[in-house]
Design brief:
single chain; 315 residues; alpha/beta; Aspartate Aminotransferase, domain 1; Aspartate Aminotransferase, domain 2; seven-stranded mixed beta sheet; three-stranded antiparallel beta sheet; 11 helices; 37% helix
Length: 315
């Protein structure tokens, strides 16, 4: 039997040289990071079971959840549990939705990122992917603006996959409610450690627990969950106001976001900033030519980018 020929490479930051603004994570890290690695090393010689931690985390977030190895594992599980015929995907959004839809052989329909316009395209037996706040433009849609889309998926007996990976960065974020919604959330962006693959699914919890991969988060993920529960989200409460304050500094360039990253159109910006040792995200993979995306970092790091952006305006 021959394998299928599938080009399924991800587009993410990582191995770069320079000050990296391309990955959209918290620039701060919790003081218990080293203790987390110490705990992980001490339990690395055994299989880890996180059912008790999962129950405690459910109590902390206030709803029944399913722990997974980041939002990416959840995206792979959804088409297994919901064998739909087609995927409805906004025009400019996280590229993994389309990759996974192609991987599972869905018919793909594109629409705008406006929930009302998207709701008019919903068909029966569909999976609708929606990132809130959206990546790469950082726009947040409150529950009242999402209501037409939520009503449409319920009327058409379809599923809304609501990717809330960046919800912690939105000031005053409110999550919508509905029967046909699966919510994807992750901690490692808001805790500044994307290499630790831990997230969770909200919705259809017992079904996802039956099909998720055993031991997927490993000893490091287990130690992270232990520390997270002890932390009780204090780290997020302490660091998000710092990011929101830095966010204001970029408004002078006419940029707006509800999250921790900005989308900017400027031809040649990627190459210009790279020459300055500043790594930003080329948004071609989103279908946005001449756009870049950059995240908010610490004040002294933002100083360098802001100075370069002033220079770029004169180029």
């Amino acid at each position: 039997m021959k394998p299928r020929n599938i080009d399924f490479r991800a587009e993410h930051g990582g191995r770069v040289q320079g000050l990296d603004f391309s990955i959209s994570v918290n620039p701060y890290q919790p003081e218990w990071k080293d203790e987390m690695f110490h705990r992980a090393r001490n339990i690395a010689d055994r299989y880890v079971y996180w059912e008790n931690l999962e129950e405690n985390l459910s109590d902390l977030v206030g709803e029944d959840i399913t722990v997974v190895a980041g939002a990416t594992e959840a995206l792979y599980l959804i088409p297994i549990l919901f064998p739909a015929e087609r995927a409805l995907i906004p025009q400019y959004t996280y590229s993994e939705y389309e990759r996974i839809a192609r991987f599972y052989g869905f018919d793909i329909l594109k629409s705008s990122n406006n929930p009302l316009e998207l709701s008019e395209k919903v068909e029966r037996n569909s999976i609708v992917f929606f990132c809130n706040p959206n990546n790469p433009d950082g726009r947040y849609f409150p529950p009242e603006l999402l209501r037409p889309l939520i009503d449409a998926v319920e009327e058409k007996d379809s599923l809304l996959v609501l990717d809330e990976a960046f919800m912690d960065f939105v000031k005053g974020y409110r999550t919508p409610e509905g029967e046909n919604i699966v919510k994807l959330r992750t901690f490692t962006k808001s805790y500044g450690m994307p290499g630790v693959r831990v997230g969770y699914i909200s919705g259809f919890t017992e079904h996802f627990k039956k099909i998720r991969m055993p031991w997927s988060i490993g000893s490091l993920g287990y130690a992270f969950l232990e520390m997270l529960l002890e932390d009780s989200f204090r780290f997020i409460e302490e660091t998000m106001p710092l990011i929101w304050e830095e966010r204001k500094r970029f408004e002078v360039f006419g940029l707006k976001t509800d999250s921790n990253f900005f989308l900017m159109k400027k031809k040649g910006a990627y190459e210009y900033l790279r020459q300055k040792g500043l790594i930003v995200r080329d948004c071609t993979s989103f279908g946005l030519k001449d756009y870049i995306r950059f995240s908010i970092r610490k004040p002294e790091e933002n100083d360098r980018l802001i100075e370069a952006l002033y220079e770029l305006r004169e180029v």
